[in-house]
């Protein structure tokens, strides 16, 4: 396939993600408005962060008059799981892929874009991610801006309800591969159960959501790799 076709394929797959992001970031715009950001500031904050939990931490930190260092540290901790996702995706690149494509793909790594990228067979073509990012990130940023503008007009419950769409979209990403593979189905089920358990276990529940995600990702993926490693021919696809 040509790079143009691969880009368009990524753009197509990114449309439902972008629509889900638009709904979620719209509700984040309400939080950004409370923090004193205008529509333009909210747009660029969303464009360069692209993370719901990270942006919520960012906006609430601004609202509480945190220092630049405090804001930088808290957003780094909350978004740390994307480091693992980026490292994982880097294994799917061709060895000849340069630094710039890796950085551009890493910039747009989110839970959902990671899901559709990692689900593709064979080596990862950066133009696929470029296509998904080209539609998802602008819709995410525009949603935040419109949320700031419309913050005083829409009921808070209505705006919060829009975020449910993102969870449905994420389920649509993980269910098909889980139906094809018993190993993936077990791993997904174990992830749900372990994630819920971590909200109840003393000390562990005090950790941030991002930190718990990192710990569970490492543990569950390690167990799956040990108990059910991919055949050599599959790992080279």
Describe this structure in words.
It contains 13 helices and no strands. It is mostly helical and 237 residues long. The radius of gyration is 19 Å and the shape is globular. The two termini are 16 Å apart. The C terminus is likely disordered.
Name some characteristics of this structure.
237 residues; disordered C terminus; single chain; mainly alpha; 0% strand
Helix-strand layout with pairing:
Elements: H1 3-34, H2 39-49, H3 52-63, H4 68-78, H5 81-90, H6 99-107, H7 111-118, H8 126-149, H9 156-161, H10 164-180, H11 182-198, H12 209-227, H13 232-235
Helix pairs in contact: 1-3, 1-8, 1-10, 2-8, 3-4, 5-7, 6-8, 7-10, 10-11, 11-12
Brief digest:
The chain has 237 residues and is an all-alpha fold. The chain has 13 helices and no strands.
Average pLDDT score: 82
Overall geometry:
globular
Give the percentage of residues in beta strands.
under 5%
Radius of gyration: 19 Å
Annotation, overall tally of beta strands: 0
Oligomer: single chain
Number of DSSP helices?
A: 13
State the separation between the terminal residues, measured CA to CA: 16 Å
What's the SSE pattern? Answer: HHHHHHHHHHHHH
- The portion of residues assigned to helices is over 70%
Structural class by SSE content:
mainly alpha
Biggest β-sheet strands, sense, barrel? none
Low-confidence stretches: 233-237
């Amino acid at each position: 396939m040509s790079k143009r076709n691969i880009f368009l394929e990524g753009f197509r797959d990114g449309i439902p993600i972008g629509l889900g992001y638009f709904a979620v970031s719209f509700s984040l715009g309400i939080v950004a408005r409370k923090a004193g950001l205008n529509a333009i500031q909210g747009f660029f904050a969303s464009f360069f962060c692209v993370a719901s939990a990270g942006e919520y931490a960012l906006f609430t930190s601004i609202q509480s008059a945190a220092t630049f260092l405090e804001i930088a540290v808290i957003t780094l901790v909350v978004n740390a799981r994307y480091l693992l996702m980026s490292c994982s995706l880097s294994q799917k690149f061709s060895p000849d892929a340069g630094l710039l494509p890796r950085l551009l793909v890493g910039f747009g790594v989110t839970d959902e874009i990671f899901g559709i990228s990692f689900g593709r067979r064979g080596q990862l073509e950066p133009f696929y991610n470029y296509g998904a990012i080209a539609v998802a990130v602008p819709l995410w940023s525009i949603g935040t801006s419109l949320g700031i503008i419309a913050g005083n007009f829409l009921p808070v419950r209505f705006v919060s309800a829009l975020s449910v769409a993102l969870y449905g979209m994420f389920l649509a990403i993980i269910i098909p591969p889980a139906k094809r593979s018993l190993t993936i189905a077990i791993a997904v089920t174990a992830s749900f159960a372990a994630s819920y358990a971590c909200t109840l276990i003393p000390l562990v529940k005090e950790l941030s959501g991002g930190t718990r995600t990192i710990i569970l990702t490492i543990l569950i993926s390690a167990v799956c790799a040990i108990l059910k490693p991919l055949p050599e021919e599959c790992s080279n696809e």
